[in-house]
């Protein structure tokens, strides 16, 4: 498995989705909100259809609005720019600290999703 973390870093591997078809099943279920951890500019250039922008670099400024919109019981899938990007893991850890309990990290991110021809905006 490839992660964006150093070997000695703590990685929550059971939360990782390493299979784009599994990510699509979660997406199609309608039970998960996909959260884009990339910058606003990257999000605006293209993102998974229906995904919410919550740039990890703007977390402190944006979390209050996110909390109002999505309760801590909401199932979340974070993603960023693929397996070399750490933002989705960092966002997942920040959301866990805010009480969200059902969080998955889609490690192939937007590039993996787009490569499959899945819905984008």
- Major beta sheet, strand line-up: 1-5-4-2-3
Q: Using DSSP, what is the number of strands? A: 5
Distance between the termini: 29 Å
Q: Mind telling me which CATH architecture this is?
A: 3-Layer(aba) Sandwich
Can you summarize this structure?
The chain is of the alpha/beta class.
Descriptive notes:
The chain has 121 residues and is an alpha/beta fold. The protein has a single domain (13-115), classed as Oxidized Rhodanese, domain 1 (3-Layer(aba) Sandwich), CATH 3.40.250.10. It has helices at 20-29, 40-45, 59-69, 87-97, 109-115, and strands at 16-17, 32-36, 52-53, 75-79, 103-106. A five-stranded parallel β-sheet has the order 1-5-4-2-3, with helices on both faces. The longest helix has 11 residues, at 59-69. The protein starts with 15 loop residues before the first strand and ends in a 6-residue tail after the last helix. The model is unreliable at 1-13 (pLDDT under 50).
Task: For the structure shown, list the relevant keywords.
globular; five-stranded parallel beta sheet; 121 residues; disordered N terminus; alpha/beta; Oxidized Rhodanese, domain 1
List the helices and strands and how they pair.
Layout: E1 16-17, H1 20-29, E2 32-36, H2 40-45, E3 52-53, H3 59-69, E4 75-79, H4 87-97, E5 103-106, H5 109-115
Parallel strand pairs: 1-5, 2-3, 2-4, 4-5
